[in-house]
Amino acid sequence: MHIKPKNYHRKSMRLQGYDYTFPGAYFVTMVTQLRECLFGEVVDSEMQVNQFGIIVDQAWMDLPSHYPQVTLEAFVVMPNHVHGIVVINECRGGSQTRPYRMIQHGLPEIVRAFKSFSAMRINQLQKRDRVAVWQRSFYDHIIRNEQDFRNNWEYIHNNPQKWQDDEFH
């Protein structure tokens, strides 16, 4: 049996030294626990979401109501993962009558909330308590320019057509 040392820290997948609260566009991928196909199936190159896939889609679309600085771009629910583009806009808040600083939430917090909201609803529907729906981390890519944005947008929209070639299918 392998025992982890007391000072073991899981290596972060985030870009070292980058501030993920910065305004910008981010491509993200989140994968289900054990790559379980929970959200539906791909039929004739089109994703057919089930009730869990609908919950995931709704949790994604609801993010701007919790994080007003967020704009959502392309998004796709696949059988065992999701891809999306999140745009974090500059946070503007306060007024002359009510000055305060709005909190600028970063990408890890936004992804954490999405995973938490969707997992909680899926577990409620299945009448189970705190069962992992998502893998612990997520993949991100900082979108650097318009061409990079278009490439990621197309990748997301074409993902169902490529499901048969997915190594984890």
Per the CATH scheme, the topology name is Alpha-Beta Plaits
CATH architecture annotation name = 2-Layer Sandwich
What is the CATH superfamily classification?
Answer: Transposase IS200-like
Number of helices: 4
Estimate the strand proportion.
15-25%
The CATH top-level class label:
Alpha Beta
Domain module tally: 1
* Poorly predicted residue ranges: 94-101
The percent of residues in helical segments reads: 25-40%
**Shape category:** globular
Describe what this molecule looks like in 3D.
- The radius of gyration is 18 Å and the shape is globular.
- With 169 residues, it is an alpha+beta fold.
- The chain has one domain: Transposase IS200-like (Alpha-Beta Plaits, 2-Layer Sandwich), CATH 3.30.70.
- A hairpin with a 3-residue loop joins β4 and β5.
- It has 4 helices and 6 strands.
Entry keywords:
169 residues; alpha+beta; Alpha-Beta Plaits; 4-stranded antiparallel β-sheet; two-stranded antiparallel ribbon
List the topology elements.
Blueprint: E1 24-31, E2 40-43, E3 46-49, H1 51-61, H2 63-66, E4 70-77, E5 81-88, H3 107-125, E6 139-143, H4 146-158
Helix pairs in contact: 1-3
Short synopsis of the structure:
This protein is of the alpha+beta class and 169 residues long.
